[in-house]
Amino acid sequence: MPSKGEIAIAGLGQTRQGKVYGRSHMGLAVEAVELALADAGLARADLDGLLLNPGIAWGNAAMGSFMLQQALGLRDLKLQSTMNLGGATAGAMIQHAALAIAAGLCTTVACVFSDRPLKAPQEQHARAGKREGSAASYAFARGLDAVYGQFGINAMYALVARRHMHVYGTTQDHLGAVAVAQRRWANRNPAAQLHAVPLTLADYHASRWIVEPFHILDCCLVSNGGVAVIVTSAERARSLRKPPVYVWGMGQGHPGGDPSETLVSGAPLARTTAFAMAGIDARDVRIAELYDCYTFTVLVTLEDYGFCAKGEAGDFVAAGHTAPGGSLPVNTGGGQLSSAYMWGMTPLAEGIVQARGEAGDRQVPRHDVVLVSGNGGLLSTHTTLVLSPLPS
Amino acid sequence: MSAGPTIPRPLPEHEGDLAPFLAAAREHRLVVQRCDGCGMLRFPPRELCSGCLSTAASWREVSGRGEIFSFNVMHQVYHPAFAREVPYAVVVIKLAEGPKITSNLVNYPVDRIRIGMPVEVVFEDVSADVTLPKFRGRA
């Protein structure tokens, strides 16, 4: 295990995100790496490690990282892998890079995500024509869930959220408070997909249902784009273009079992390892960038890191603690609900921007301890990073 | 709406893991898997027991009674066969014997469904050779 502050993030590259057309998933990945290298003041030849989290558009890309290596023209890599823990992958890539660098396997690793799930309007038309009326095109609907009309991850998360409402008294207003707080952050982030769209609790309640208890505003956006992060030793990072963002702590937690029974994510496990390495507890965290596939996920994650008692996150958010000016700024770029859905890269990238003090109108004044969480599956996988602009 | 061919509602396949479950349903019996290694009941069926890793399992009839463990109400249409049914509820029933099963309630308004509601199985013949277990409220 690297020690606190031994490893640092030296570069961040983000393409435009949202309804971005005209580039493939590979093109977006390459652009993100180019931007991250430029940010760090590095050249392609400086990279000796490459980790990829392939989004949906990559298909079954078991060796996507090799395809990306070829696209980037990278030679003589000493570390490479294609990784997938769902939304926890971004944190896991940073951790694998940190471990490999600390162990001496390699020195400078690009961690990359890209996806292109949104089709351009003309592509949508072509696709609809092909699908219409063909029973074979609905061959995905197999098994008993489809027989009873249960489709997709929204419906699965809705079942867990409903349990949380039942067990802890979480309300629709509580879910809406998360959406509203994060939109207020997005309104300060010019890169956010919904930057220009204000949101009130009344707007939230009036928005259409996807699957109760989730309105469309409880669900993350769908976005095209790419993000890359360069990881290296703290020593090397100090000689590069941007001030280092130090990795103070890291950990993972994958609880197994049935989250609809426990209503607990992997955060308590991951937190224990990461906070011990960083030498902090929840009270030291100034900013929390929490994985937000749904409003509900933010509530569970706040509880599981100990920012409030189990079952009390709804009141915590409704009281304004996580919004601009609150005691614990959460998802300060608008998150995946209001900024862009880049899986775990969304909270990670915003955590880096805040730690550096580069967040402009939304910069949180005290940014010396930044928590970044990743969550994948149905509260199934979890990663924690503790980041800081200070070496220790 | 375009006048394309009607997309039928998805039906379970008679081959594979679910075959004994579907065969029992046609006889109006609700069955779940029972691990022959440790006795744990499980549903949906799996190749092996996550408790003792035994691959030996048999099927056991259960009471068909239980309570609503959780539910959602689907509004978005993910499959055209459900376009005229939205909003409809998908319910997870915790059976009295322990395992959970996903299903629908029959003739029950979605806004009155509550976690903890006692329910019991009913059998609905949905085609010539498929009968599905569904649930209704019980006192």
Describe what this molecule looks like in 3D.
Chain A is of the alpha/beta class. Chain A is 37% helix and 17% strand. In chain A, strand 10 (370-376) and strand 11 (381-388) form a beta hairpin. In chain A, helix 7 crosses helix 12 (295-304). Chain A is globular and about 50 Å long. Chain A starts with 6 loop residues before the first strand and ends with a strand. In chain B, the strands form 2 sheets. Chain B has a 5-stranded antiparallel beta sheet with strand order 6-5-4-7-8. A 3-stranded antiparallel beta sheet of chain B has the order 2-1-3. By secondary structure, chain B is mainly beta. Chain B has one helix spanning 19-26; strands at residues 31-35, 41-42, 57-61, 65-74, 88-95, 100-103, 118-125, 131-137. In chain B, a hairpin with a 5-residue loop joins strand 1 and strand 2 (41-42). Classes of the chains: A alpha/beta (392), B mainly beta (139). At the A-B interface, helix 5, helix 6 and strand 5 of A face strand 4 and strand 5 of B. Strand 5 of chain A pairs antiparallel with strand 4 (65-74) of chain B, so a sheet runs across the interface.
Q: Tell me the series of helices and strands of chain B, N- to C-terminal.
A: HEEEEEEEE
Q: What is the element string of chain A, with H for helices and E for strands? A: EHEHEHEHHHHHEEEHEHHEHHHHEE
Percent helix range of chain B: under 10%
Mean pLDDT score of chain A, rounded?
Answer: 95
Q: Give the strand tally of chain B.
A: 8
* Range of helix content of chain A: 25-40%
Keywords:
heterodimer, A: 392 residues, two-stranded antiparallel sheet, 15 helices, globular, B: 139 residues, mainly beta, three-stranded antiparallel sheet, 1 helix, 6% helix
Topology record:
The complex is a heterodimer of chains A (392) and B (139).
Chain A lengths: L6 E8 L10 H16 L8 E6 L9 H9 L6 E4 L6 H15 L4 E8 L5 H11 L11 H5 L4 H17 L3 H15 L14 H6 L2 E4 L1 E2 L9 E9 H4 L7 E8 L6 H4 L4 H12 L8 E3 L5 H10 L8 H6 L16 H4 L6 H12 L13 E7 L4 E8 L4
Parallel strand pairs in A: 2-3, 2-4, 9-10
Antiparallel strand pairs in A: 1-7, 1-8, 4-7, 5-6, 8-11, 10-11
Helix pairs in contact in A: 7-12
Chain B lengths: L18 H8 L4 E5 L5 E2 L14 E5 L3 E10 L13 E8 L4 E4 L14 E8 L5 E7 L2
Antiparallel strand pairs in B: 1-2, 1-3, 4-5, 4-7, 5-6, 7-8
